[in-house]
Amino acid sequence: MSSSVPDNSDSPAGFAYAVTVYVIWGFLPIFMKALAHVPPAEVIAHRILWSLPIALAVLIWQRRAADVVTALRNPRMLAMAAVTAALISVNWLIYVWAVGNGHTLDAALGYYINPLFSVFLGATLLKERLTPAQIGAIALAALAVLVLTAQAGRLPVVALGLTLSWGFYAYFKKSLPLGPNQGFTLEVLVLLPFALAFLIWQAANGTSHFATGSLSDTLLLLGCGPVTAIPLLLYANAAKRLRLSTIGILQYIAPTMIFLCAVLLFGEPFGTARMIAFPMIWAALVIYSVSLLREGAARRRAAGVTRRMQ
């Protein structure tokens, strides 16, 4: 799935990949709600187990499987993959637990905050310069978290857990010197022994829902592989074909759909604090998106001037 699209332009294929990914992630709570009676650890183990055949098939098709074999022989790369694998596992575990226990709105909040937290990480860890608009957006999001904390008397743990785990996952993922598809496969391979050990332990204790419970449980657990691997692989290829600003705006599709699922399908309460906090987050994201669009337009103008001068 190579791309010849320049970095400063969007391709129709990239747009189609990205929209498909975010729509799948937006509907994912419905799938996970059907597994609410299954322990989150079992769901995660099956996400790992059944993602592997898909990831390996893609690499074999791309003729890039040798990259993963080389990485498995490199202790430093394995250690880096272990960090990212641990972070994505935590993110999955929190998400599955949240949907199954009536906290889907908190999950939506976490994924709304994600891009702003990534900008914050870039400023604090990578010393990237923030525009006044980006600083204002981050401050507004932080204020929204304070509103929810004051109302509940505690931090919104689910939202912050999802934000922190995904934010640091994306940060460390940049340091992994592998292509996105190879990196995902390596992470799954790192997690596989733990997933298998847990599933074998479950089977030995008679607590497994796979092939021992209902047919629907077995099919849903098998489906954990495709709903995990396919969106991540599509996202990796969408990112190559779209500008950062385009990806930055399209990513709000998923939390918006998660939000609608929580309120309209699951009937989760949308109290006063959330009525205040969510519009604050939405306003912060509008400010952030406008700043991204302006930065992208400025870069294109500068590139156009440079080309004319050459």
Q: Biggest sheet: strands, sense, closure? A: none
CA-based gyration radius: 20 Å
End-to-end C-alpha gap: 33 Å
- What is the molecular shape? globular
Helix content: over 70%
* Total separate domains: 1
Our estimate of the beta-strand percent is: under 5%
Low-pLDDT regions: 1-7
Total beta-strand segments = 0
Work out the helix count.
Answer: 12
Query: Helix and strand succession?
Result: HHHHHHHHHHHH
Write down the overall mean pLDDT. Answer: 87
- The structural class is mainly alpha
Jot down its keywords:
disordered N terminus, mainly alpha, 81% helix, 310 residues, 12 helices
Summarize the structure.
The protein has helices at 12-33, 40-62, 65-72, 75-100, 104-125, 132-152, 157-173, 180-205, 215-241, 244-250, 253-265, 272-309. The protein has 310 residues and is an all-alpha fold.
